[in-house]
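Before drawing any conclusions, I needed to go through one protein's amino acid sequence and its C-alpha cells, quoted below without any editing.
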Amino acid sequence: MEALSEQEFRERAEQAFRSIFISDDPFGKPFNPHIEYKLLLFDYRWALSDPWIEPIGKAIRDMGEDGFYVTALYRPKGDAQSRPYHWYVPINEIDQYGSLIHSQQNAIYSCLGKWGIICSDEDHALVGGPRILIEMIQKSVIDIDKRVQEFIKLWLYYHDQNQVRIDWLPGLLAHIYGNDDARRLLGEAGWDQPTNLL
C-alpha cells in the first residue's frame, strides 16, 4: 500500500474521486448523475469485509483494475496533517487497507473513475459503478434486500426511541434506488411519514 500526500492526491487521485462523487456525504446524494447503478450496503464497518469483500474484489479484477484509492473523508488541512489520509491499495492487498483508516468515514474508488464506495460511521455504505459490480454483489449477497430493510428499520427505531432526525432517509434511498423503489422500501419497513422524495 502506498500513502499519498495531499499534493499527490490532487495530482493522481482527485480527478477519479470527483468523477464518481459530487459530495462526501454518505447520508446524502454523493454520486455523480452518470453513476447509474447503485446499492446500499448494510452492515458495513469502515472497510470491506464479509460478505462484501469477495464479490467486490472479484468485480474489480474482472474490470481489469489492479488496485484502488482510499481517501479518509474528514481530515485536517494539509499543513496540519500528521499522517496520510489517502492511499493507493493494490488489489492483492484489499483485505489489509482497513488498518489505514483508523475507524473513520472513507471512500474507496476506482483509479479510472469507474466505481466507488463511500462509507458512514453508522455501519452503512453506498456503492455505485458499472452493472458488473452491482450484479456481482447482488448475486453473492443474497439477503441484500433484507439488509436494506434492516437499515431502514434501524433508523426508524432510532427516531422512535431517541427522536433522531431521519428526514434525510427518503432522499438517500431515492438517490440509490429511484423514487418508486424508495417509496416501496420505506412502505415495507413501516415508514408512516411524508416522503417528499426529490
About this structure: The longest helix spans residues 144-162. The CA atoms of residues 6 and 77 lie 9 Å apart. Residues 2-141 form one domain. The first strand starts at residue 2 and ends at 4.
